[in-house]
Write a structure and sequence with these properties.
Shape: rod-shaped
Structural class: alpha/beta
CATH class of one domain: Alpha Beta
CATH topology of one domain: Rossmann fold
Largest sheet: 5 strands, parallel
CATH architecture of one domain: 3-Layer(aba) Sandwich
CATH superfamily of one domain: Response regulator
Number of strands: 5
Number of helices: 6
Helix content: 55-70%
Strand order of the largest sheet: 2-1-3-4-5
Length: about 220
């Protein structure tokens, strides 16, 4: 059920508007507040779909109430219809629009105009709620994809690091094998040369045929 908050310091006005809404918009729930501060707290708590706000109130007028509601993250998306005492009061309307008011109604309130204004505000609120929900859903999806990509990137970096370590070990092992191979070749060459020297020595002593060592 859609909720409409009415803020007015005069109880008679609250009763009249509540009855109008009951007759012309029976599908909506009406909530009332007798002052600006009370209206702000009620709006934060109830999160209504539209607010009807009287401009002339003591302590805190409608302009200040509207300003605070539009600057609060909880209530800034709620459409506000400000109620003026004079239909042709353009100065009040301009001031209201500058601080975030969405529409205006003049006293005495016409039931048809009241219904039309509220229906427009409800449609605006519903459309904005859907846009915010879609945006939040998209942001969540992007966040999930970003986390997934980050995790995959971390995993890939670990694999690259492991691959580099393995490659380094293989290069080191290959170097060791090269050194071993060179040492083996040098040893074989030394043995061959040694055998040649022994054979030459034996030849010189005339014992080559008897003691010749195979090279």
């Amino acid at each position: 059920m859609k909720k409409i908050l009415v803020i007015d310091d005069k109880k008679d006005n609250l009763i009249s508007i509540t009855e109008l809404l009951k007759d012309y918009m029976p599908g909506c729930k009406t909530i009332t507040a007798l002052s600006g501060p009370e209206g702000i707290e009620t709006a934060k708590r109830e999160k209504p779909d539209t607010i009807l706000l009287d401009i002339i109130m003591p302590v805190m007028d409608g302009y200040e109430v509207c300003k605070q509601l539009k600057s609060n993250v909880v209530t800034k998306h709620i459409p506000i219809v400000m109620i003026t005492a004079i239909k042709t009061d353009s100065e009040s309307r301009i001031k209201g629009l500058e601080i975030g008011a969405d529409a205006f109604l003049s006293k005495p309130i016409d039931p048809a105009e009241l219904t039309a204004q509220i229906n427009v505000m409800l449609r605006i609120k519903e459309a904005e709620d859907k846009l915010r929900a879609d945006k939040e859903s998209l942001n969540k999806l992007v966040e999930e994809k970003t986390i997934d990509l980050s995790e995959k990137n971390t995993k890939l970096q670990l694999e690259i690091t492991a691959h580099e370590k393995t490659l380094k070990k293989l290069k080191s092992r290959n170097k060791e094998l090269e050194i071993f191979y060179e040492a083996t070749v040098n040893r074989e060459m030394t043995i061959i040369e040694l055998k040649k020297e022994i054979n030459e020595l034996l030849e010189n002593t005339g014992k080559k045929q008897k003691y010749k060592i195979p090279v």
